Amino acid sequence: MKYFPVFFISLLLLSCTDDEESNNIINNETMPQLIEIFPTASDNGDDIILHGKNFGGERGISLVYFNDVPAESYRIWADTVIHLTIPTGAVSGKVRIVKKAEEESNELYFTVKSFGGFPSVAIGRQVWMKRNLGLIECRNGTRLERRLDPSDWIRTNGFFCWAYPAETMDEKLGKLYGDEVILYPEKNNIAPNGWHVALKKDWDELLAYLGADKVLLDSNKFSSFDLAAYLTDNDKGLWVDLFPGSTNSTGFSALPTGYINGEKGIYMSKGETASWWYDNNNEIWCGTIHIYYKSSMILISPWNIDPGGHSIRCVRDE
Fold first, then answer.
1. CB-CB contact of 303 with 285 (8 Å)
2. Coil, strand or helix: which one is 17?
3. What is the mean pLDDT of residues 78-96?
4. What is the pLDDT of residues 120-135, one digit of tens each?
5. 249 and 76 in contact (C-beta within 8 Å)?
6. In 3D, which of 291, 278, 297, 288 has the Cα closest to residue 240?
7. Residue 92: pLDDT over 80
8. How far apart are alpha carbons 1 and 5 in whole angstroms?
9. C-alpha 35: how far from its chain's center?
């Protein structure tokens, strides 16, 4: 009997230890946990994606902190993924999620760095520029000539013009480029360092991520996919009209720059169409991607080589 108090206390301590371990397990199963940040380095104003678990089905009062700077703009908040914009003032350091005072995630290191001032957005496993390219000087220092009159595009190509006649729109809409910028990158590499003009395989990966049929994508034939609502900026101030359901959920923010028809020498579809060149992996032909305001279709047109002008989007180098 003299051992009973000690034995009883031992059982009590063991029971408490078990309870504490049990509580820790429960807490670990409910606490937010960061597993991955994609990409691992980006700039202020860029969109990134956090992967993990126990984030909560809705954001509520939860916040993502870059060191001590909270993010304010969230595109998606789900239990296993958060799509957000890096806040102004964020610097390299630790990222964490705070649901409430006693529910804080682990920390992952993230690098905030400049990529030449080009806002970007993470979509799937890619990082795209948020806006169309607007540069006029190639990497080798060559400056592209201006061809503002669409009729000039009948006689020559390899040049650029403003996406809109009003230069005040140029920063937002980018420029329209001739096909030589795509066909001869060794001479006219217009993509800034750290980026490349979107290849056919880049567009294929993007559209496949959104749900496009891979067989059609691989066919290199004219194809169409009902996916544009995910990519189209829903700013009705620029679009003549916008098809219902445009969410821009990816943050790609397609805008209706129109294009130059090189065969007719006319500027077409202002406010109605977004169109981009794509590089066919540096082969001798290139094609175009189109979004039209009356439908949510994305049209892929291969072998479209003419002196016309289209926009360019760039993808971050891996």
1. yes
2. helix
3. 90
4. 888 998 989 989 998 8
5. yes
6. 291
7. yes
8. 8
9. 20
| Cα–Cα dist 224/289, whole Å | 10
Beta bridge partners of 233: none
Distances (CA, A) of 78 to 65, 82, 127, 276: 17, 6, 21, 32
Look up residue 248 and give its two tokens. Answer: 């821009």
C-alpha to C-alpha distances, 240 to 165, 227, 272, 293, nearest whole angstrom: 17, 19, 6, 7
Backbone angles phi, psi at 54, to 5 degrees: 60, 30
Q: Look-up: residue for tokens 């403003």?
A: 162
Calculate the alpha carbon distances from 258 to 68, 183, 208, 273, 307 in Å.
Answer: 43, 21, 25, 5, 15
What distance in Å separates the CA atoms of residue 64 and residue 73, rounded to the nearest whole number?
Answer: 10
DSSP string, 93-155: EEEEEEEETTEE---EEEEE--STT--EEEETTEEEESS-----B-TTSPBPPB--SGGGGGT
Q: Tell how far CA 239 is from the center of its chain.
A: 21
Q: Could you tell me the pTM of the whole model?
A: 0.75
The owner of tokens 């089905």 is 57
Query: Which tokens go with 179?
Result: 């096909």
291 with 252: CB under 8 angstroms? no
In angstroms, the CA 195 to CA 46 distance is 15
Beta bridge partners of 102: none
pLDDT tens track for 11-25:
343 444 444 333 333
Q: 243 pLDDT band (50/70/90 cuts)? A: confident
What is the C-alpha to C-alpha distance for residues 226 and 207, in angstroms, rounded to an integer? 10
> How many alpha carbons fall within 13 Å on the CB side of residue 218?
3
* Distances 4 to 12, 15, 88, 192 between C-alpha atoms, Å: 12, 16, 64, 78
